[in-house]
Design goal:
four-stranded mixed beta sheet
């Protein structure tokens, strides 16, 4: 045979027969005979030609014998040949998807000693172990390939997707509102508008909808609240904003009397509500 060993995935080999006959022979004589092998496990696709069916044969070292049937004095000749099975290149990661802030995944490898590769954008911390540097890789879907390093190498591949963290940022037009103001609507990024999320806050603040984040001011209690938005994407994130809801000022006041003469002492107002404010009146009344 041309080689001393063959891999089970190789091209089926056929031996070369070096045939000689002593003496004077008329005509053309072709070598004929039968091939056998020991131990069992080697399969010939044709026992007369000696062609070996590699994929059907078992990995082992064999003694192959050719029994010649030419002429009146048959002869035999032997050779040793090794059949080697293909490396098992299978491997797997714990998941088919990861976020860039997950722990770097390391695959389970059936046959150690090979090398991992992938398309540009995916970074391995070690090409031998297959550990992926998620934070150093670009979000995207990749085909990860492992190639063994044995005598009969083989490859296998898996698909793996790395997702970027959701953008959970949002904002309200203002940070402070009165309970009589128009209900404020938060502004979300375009990506969050598509994937959605949930708004939450402490007890006392009411949303018209937890998915839109619109605050029902009239139904909420005055106070300062931490409003949090949590995204619904592949890699959920949260962000928060402080919102203050103010009650209406108490503008209550009174005077000691409802009527005064122009020569009386100037009356001062008795303020029963918020002390900070400004008095106004119709034309003709003058404040000191």
């Amino acid at each position: 045979y041309a080689e001393s060993y063959y891999c089970t995935s190789g091209t089926d080999p056929t031996p070369t027969l070096n045939f000689t006959v002593s003496g004077t022979i008329s005509g053309t004589i072709s070598p004929t005979g039968t091939f056998t092998a020991s131990p069992t496990g080697l399969v010939f696709s044709n026992s007369n030609s000696g062609t070996i069916d590699l994929s059907a044969s078992v990995s082992n070292t064999y003694l192959i014998t050719f029994n010649s049937t030419v002429g009146g004095c048959p002869s035999t000749v032997t050779t040793t040949l090794q059949i080697i099975g293909q490396d098992d290149p299978t491997f797997s990661y714990d998941s088919a998807t990861y976020c860039v802030n997950d722990s770097n995944p390391t695959p389970t490898i059936t046959t150690l000693g090979g090398t991992f590769s992938s398309t540009a954008g995916l970074v391995f911390t070690n090409a031998s172990s297959g550990t992926i540097d998620l934070d150093g890789s670009s979000p995207g879907t990749y085909t990860v390939t492992y190639t063994t390093a044995g005598t009969c190498t083989d490859t296998s591949s898996v698909q793996l997707t790395i997702y970027a963290l959701d953008d959970a940022s949002f904002s309200y037009p203002r940070l402070s509102y009165c309970i009589t103001d128009a209900d404020p609507i938060p502004t979300l990024t375009a990506s969050q508008t598509l994937i959605g999320g949930t708004f939450t806050a402490g007890s006392g603040l009411t949303f018209t909808s937890s998915s839109t984040g619109i605050i029902d001011l009239s139904a909420s209690n005055p106070g300062t609240y931490t409003v949090t938005f949590t995204s619904n994407g592949n890699c959920p994130q949260s962000s928060s904003r402080l919102i203050t809801i103010n009650d209406l000022d108490d503008a209550g006041f009174s005077y000691a009397k409802a009527a005064y003469c122009v020569n009386e002492s100037d009356p001062s107002a008795i303020i029963t509500g918020t002390t900070l404010g400004k008095f106004t009146s119709s034309s003709g009344l003058v404040f000191t």
